[in-house]
Design brief:
- The complex is a heterodimer of chains A (271) and B (185).
- Chain A is α/β, with parallel strands linked by helices.
- Chain A folds into two domains: 109 residues, 3-Layer(aba) Sandwich (Glutaredoxin), CATH 3.40.30; 116 residues, Glutathione S-transferase Yfyf (Class Pi), Chain A, domain 2 (Up-down Bundle).
- Chain A has twelve helices and five strands.
- Chain A has a five-stranded mixed β-sheet with strand order 1-3-2-4-5, covered by helices on one side.
- In chain A, a hairpin with a 2-residue loop joins strand 4 and strand 5.
- Classes of the chains: A alpha/beta (271), B mainly alpha (185).
- The interface between A and B is medium-sized, with 19 and 20 residues.
């Protein structure tokens, strides 16, 4: 069959999650981005917070992981071109994501998940078995090409690339997806349920799916060219944790359009 | 290549289970030999170790530029750029050094993961006649004394090749061609 962008919008997804109570434990994902001059919101002891930006794939990893764990966490969105001065106390370069609880701050989307599993071991997603844990880390490394390749799609959009330049960027994406298709042996990269690799890679496939039609890519994602990944994408998109983090297609496309033209992106697109 | 599809080292094998990539191997070793664990078990201290490794990444990515200069006899602006990248990476890590080790009172995860890169910079610098090579107590006092302490560790003595062998290897190493991996044996 064929899939359309509409199949993956939040509208449809709202009807499918079986445990919407878990969605509400992540609060604040749809709040306006704080900017220079905005005061730092106080954070009570024992409360957890993720500093994010609604359309950043790296920050989305942290929101997804927290949602998948079912932990209570507040999301504070940051305006990345006009950052609040206090945000540099959270991340030395003012990037997202950052995680804060009880005065301890952890940065890097590849480090926050393990930290969350350490703080909340009862909902651990990374395996405790050393070999299985190592396998997940190795697998993340093997799927990493999509995290760099997808920026080529932004470049096509921004620079209105044509011909060979455009084809080269598309080939980089397709080669990455081809490689990852071969690695998916079960329902999820984590096995029978969504795991570490699934959550850390999902934001990039989400964006590939979002941009496939608008950019008229020769092979859309999802499609029968990549049967395992396409089934996986449907499965994981319907997961309640995805609903907690993913933005509706029109808001997301609105952000990307504002992002590629340069100047100040619309971090509050859709709000 | 059956052990590691990327054909790279290090690769660790025990009881038929194979793990590769240096940081992953270290965590795996701690997992199967927990009595001698080096990574902290406290989640925050563990995360701090990992964040510190991220901040040293510029050296891991730039050090090979020195090998390229030597192997391909690079001159001029390109040579200067590669050397500058390494020096700036070391400058940034100098700001992070804690005494006596990154791991605190004893060498830890970060110390063992980054030592090999400093070791190689130290070996190749004289071969390239770099003006202020590492170690240099003028430019990098913290890291230079850290390096001396690390080289005296039993683990370092066990793992490091004698300087003459290492420099011999580097001299035979030409990118894309075979090198004398058995130099000194």
């Amino acid at each position: 069959g064929s899939w359309t962008i509409q199949d993956w919008t939040r509208q449809d997804r709202k009807q499918t999650p079986t445990n919407s109570a878990e969605m509400s434990k992540v609060v604040g994902n749809d709040t306006k981005a704080l900017k220079k001059g905005d005061p730092e919101p106080p954070l009570a002891p024992g409360k957890a917070r993720i500093y994010s930006m609604r359309f950043c794939p790296w920050a989305e990893r942290a929101v997804l992981y927290a949602a998948a764990k079912g932990i209570e966490v507040e999301v504070v969105n940051i305006n990345l071109v006009n950052k609040p001065e206090w945000y540099y106390n959270k991340h030395p370069q003012g990037k997202v994501p950052a995680f804060e609880k009880d005065g301890k701050i952890v940065i890097e989307s590849g480090i926050i998940p393990e930290y969350l599993d350490g703080l909340y071991p009862e909902s651990a997603i990374l395996p405790t078995d050393p070999y299985l844990r190592a396998q997940q880390r190795i697998l993340l490394d093997q799927v990493a090409p999509i995290t760099t390749a997808f920026y080529g799609l932004f470049a096509i959009y921004r620079e209105k690339l044509e011909g060979e330049a455009r084809d080269a960027k598309i080939k980089t994406v397709e080669d990455a997806v081809d490689g990852i298709e071969k690695l998916l042996k079960e329902d999820y990269f984590g096995g029978s349920s969504a795991g570490f690799v699934d959550w850390l890679i999902f934001p990039f496939f989400e964006r590939l799916a979002l941009l496939s039609s608008p950019l008229s890519l020769p092979s859309l994602f999802p499609s029968s060219r990549w049967p395992a990944l396409s089934s996986w994408f449907g499965r994981i998109s319907a997961h309640p944790a995805a609903a907690a983090a993913v933005q509706p297609a029109d808001a997301h496309l609105g952000f990307i359009k504002s992002f590629v033209v340069g100047g100040a992106p619309d971090y509050d697109s859709g709000l | 290549l059956k052990k590691n599809p990327l054909g790279k080292v290090p690769t660790f094998e025990k009881d038929g289970e194979i793990v590769y990539d240096s940081a992953v191997v270290l965590e795996y070793l701690d997992g199967i030999y927990p009595d001698s664990a080096i990574l902290p078990t406290d989640p925050y201290l563990r995360a701090q170790s990992r964040m510190l490794i991220e901040r040293t990444a510029p050296l891991a990515s730039s050090f090979f530029g020195l090998f390229i200069i030597h192997s391909e006899k690079i001159e001029g602006a390109e040579r200067e750029a590669k050397i500058k990248a390494v020096e700036e990476a070391i400058d940034s890590i100098e700001k992070l050094i804690t005494e006596p080790f990154f791991g605190g009172n004893s060498a830890g995860f970060v110390d063992y993961l980054i030592l090999p890169f400093f070791e190689r910079v130290a070996h190749i610098s004289p071969l390239l006649s770099i003006p202020s090579p590492f170690p240099s107590s003028d430019r990098w006092p913290g890291l230079s004394s850290w390096f001396g302490r690390c080289c005296a560790l039993p683990a370092a003595v066990a793992a490091m090749q004698p300087a003459a062998y290492h420099q011999g290897f580097i001299k035979t190493f030409v990118i894309g061609k075979s090198a004398d991996c058995d130099f000194g044996i």
